[in-house]
Amino acid sequence: MQLNQIELTNYRNYNQLTLNFSPKLNVFVGDNAQGKTNLLESIYVLSLTKSHRSNHEKELIQWDKDFARIEGQISKKNGDIDLTMIVSNKGKKTKVNGLEQTKLSQYIGYLNVILFAPEDLSLVKGSPQYRRKFLDMEIGQINSQYLHHLSNYQTVLKQRNQYLKKTAFNKSYDSLYLDVLNEQLAQEGSFVLFSRLYFIKLLEKWANSIHENISYGKEELRVSYKSTLELSAEQTREELYHLLMEELKKTEERDLTQLTTNVGPHRDDLVFMVNGQNVQTYGSQGQQRTTALSVKLAEIELINEEIGEYPILLLDDVLSELDDERQVQLMEFIDNKLQTFLTTTSVTHLNDKLKIKPEIFYVTNGEVERTSEDVDG
Ligand SMILES: Nc1ncnc2c1ncn2[C@@H]1O[C@H](COP(=O)(O)OP(=O)(O)O)[C@@H](O)[C@H]1O
Ligand SMILES: [Mg+2]
Fold first, then answer.
1. Dihedral class, residue 153 (left if φ above 0, else alpha if ψ from -120 to 50, else beta)
2. Hey, what's the torsion of the CAs at 143, 267, 197, 142, to 10 degrees?
3. Is 33 close to ligand 1, i.e. is its CB under 6 Å away?
4. Which residues make up the binding site for ATP (predicted)?
């Protein structure tokens, strides 16, 4: 798929901007704090309705304005689609071909993006919370039901935790009520678990082979799911439901003392092993980078496998984070395969690593200038 055009209104430091893109490589060049990341972010938000660097959508609105709008025109195998995403004081509004979408889960998935930014090293080094967020965002893109079930799960979890806290005051509890909550939690939680396990199986297959390539056969990467439940291979959703019910019951006493829910997907994590060693704890900086890169590239192949076309790739300042060899490998991977948007402070270092002629956009303080007028396909 590709993004042909984007139009921004009151978005961060862009008043009003319309850009037409090349179906291949688009490069945003400029000094710091000019608006390069803002551009990539706007594409990300158009796809996922959330920013990768802020939890508060209102930050996207230009300081003295009361709404921000992103409009994108995309081409997919089955035709062209117009997407609109508006943020205002009243919240978010999304449109597909001009029609307002009532649920975000209906909207997300039309445009698939993979973003790779320096912070993505946190995928390996960061907290479990970061890795769960990664899982949730990526699965949400290929499975439209996922975010819906996840949000139900989180709602029930919150209710259960609130109830557990209340029992401390009341010094008694209603075991039937807890059963009802457990059952709802297991319903939603088993969906979340099942989807995550499926996703990781696909991810690991691709990450493993890409990592082998990048390390010239020297390293073997394994990706696995670390659960608070004792999972065995190939469990059905039904089996996961029963397992979750059992475990919730088993830990109920501990939950009642600690006043929180100790088992379930909200406590799970991802583990990366290179040549049998946990990269999080034992990996060198280089191995951690290669691992993060392999996982990101794996996602690209995974999306292609799942939905039948390549997503859009957003690379924010990553070249400066990778050594020359990895930069070349990354560029070789992209080749002509998928539409890519890349930010950099200097194009001179870039040119010798590229096989494709990039479309260059110079970004200066919320204004963008393109080097050539027409897009060559
Ligand atoms: N809501 C906003 N309204 C107006 N300007 C903003 C807003 N949010 C960020 N900016 C401006 O955007 C600029 C940063 O843009 P960014 O894309 O991060 O830069 P870079 O080119 O380094 O990637 C800063 O000058 C900042 O003041
Ligand atoms: Mg930036």
1. alpha
2. 20
3. yes
4. 30-37
Most confident residue range from 133-142, 167-176, 186-195, 230-239: 186-195
Domain 1-112+311-377 -> CATH class? alpha beta
Ligand sitting nearest the alpha carbon of 364: 1
265 Cβ below 6 A of ligand 1: no
Among 130-144, 190-204, 250-264, the range scoring the smallest mean pLDDT is: 130-144
Q: Which atom of ligand 1 is nearest to the CA of 32?
A: 22
What pLDDT does 372 receive? 61
Residue 377, pLDDT above cutoff 50: no
Assign 376 a pLDDT band (cuts: 50, 70, 90): very low
Angle at 298 between CA 269 and CA 282, to 5 degrees: 50
Residue 163, both tokens = 């109830």
What's the mean pLDDT when you consider all of the chain? Answer: 93
Helix axes 128-142, 146-170, angle to 10 degrees: 140
Q: Can you tell me the mean pLDDT for 319-348?
A: 87
Fold classified for 124-307: Glutathione S-transferase Yfyf (Class Pi); Chain A, domain 2 (1.20.1050)
The reply to whether 124-307 shares the fold of 1-112+311-377 is no
Closest ligand 1 atom, residue 59 Cα: 1
> Residue 63: CB within 6 Å of ligand 1?
yes
**Rounded to a whole number, what is the distance in angstroms from the first to the last CA of the chain?**
14
